[in-house]
């Protein structure tokens, strides 16, 4: 490309991108592929294809891309009325190459991979009878080779500490160290704790233990705070995790008022974001929970987005917040204003060293409402956040789009751009390094379109 053409490109980019534009910092995302992977039916069991949001159902191994799906079993009763599907994207599009014909489950099955060409499927088949509503489950990991993914190589059955009472409600997180060829699986055991295992390249359990929940001493009735949907990263035996509180409404007045609205005894909180880590899971247990964010005062809402472990050891976090539950405002906090935020923080050695709001929408003011966000790191060290935005524009027009924002090394904004997807995604997975996919200038997406169709779609975007 000659200098004149470059100059024209930069001038055009400056019309749509904020900030100073130069040849090295422009983001011009190019959508290369948009296509459906599979259709699904609602299982009416509380889960769905995107339910394991702390993990991913999409991995890339060089030029090979694999995904798992969730199929509702006809005539099977909830909760365990689904089975996993395995897909590969070939030159002609997506092909189903595997299905669990032998077991039933409730939740989607996350994937992880190594740089040696192997990838792994986390399954949680139920042990409950066909006519049972719920019951015990048996976690297992299936190993495949990217060279011939149509046949499972072996089944790995982790050695858990104690007699873990697993059920179909796993809330599990699946992570990989792609270079050391190790896997980490974290799976909830009821409301009591989470069990974890570290598996070596041969599938043998290297370490195992239990993760105890943070203690909610400040509640009217102190209790354990179950943490769910955690994003987990594994590197050289170090483990990092960030998840959200998920307990029955702990405020007795709010709980009674919600029961009047819904008729239910329960309503879960999702209001506190917690982080935990260890420099070596084989030598030091996961301890000392750190509260990253809270919307406890006004019955708000917090949702984890993503976690990126940078080469220098800095942990990057991104999440969304909503200030209030508007159903309760008139009675409990009439002067509170609604506010939606996309927030970002950097953590080192278990301490927050930097935080800021990337995008906000406040009642009566800006109305660009941020949604789910994921990191996209590149091999050259650049880091972007891919996220969804809804609401209305400054001119009052409906807004539904995906955007990219580059974060500089100090956490400040780099260039940004709208990603020109024909069908925006508001719930999605990426081929994340947390699951073993390599950092890439290509953004792979598996998600659900905003249009409400019961289909899971794939998109490939050239980012840099």
Description:
The chain has helices spanning 3-16, 252-262, 326-332; strands at 30-39, 58-61, 64-72, 82-90, 93-99, 111-113, 118-123, 140-145, 154-156, 173-177, 182-189, 193-199, 205-212, 215-216, 223-224, 227-235, 238-245, 272-278, 287-294, 301-309, 315-322, 339-348, 351-362, 368-377, 383-392, 398-407, 413-419, 425-430, 442-449, 455-462. With 464 residues, it is mainly β. It has one domain (36-462): Integrin alpha, N-terminal (Methylamine Dehydrogenase, Chain H, 7 Propeller). The strands form eight sheets. It has a four-stranded antiparallel β-sheet with strand order 1-30-29-28, with no helix packed on it. It has a four-stranded antiparallel β-sheet with strand order 2-3-4-5, with no helix packed on it. It has a four-stranded antiparallel β-sheet with strand order 6-7-8-9, with no helix packed on it. The longest helix is centred in the first third of the chain and has 14 residues, at 3-16. The two termini are 16 Å apart.
* Major sheet: arrangement of strands: 1-30-29-28
Report the sheet with the most strands, covering strand number, pairing sense and barrel closure: 4 strands, antiparallel
Q: State the distance separating the first and last CA atoms.
A: 16 Å
Number of strands: 30
The CATH homologous superfamily is named: Integrin alpha, N-terminal
Strand content: over 45%
How helical, in percent, are the residues?
under 10%
Average pLDDT confidence is: 93
CATH class: Mainly Beta
**Distinct helical segment count:** 3
Low-confidence stretches: 1-23
Q: What would CATH call the architecture? A: 7 Propeller
Q: Which fold name corresponds to the CATH topology?
A: Methylamine Dehydrogenase, Chain H
Judging from the principal axes of the Cα atoms, what is the shape?
globular
The helix/strand class is mainly beta
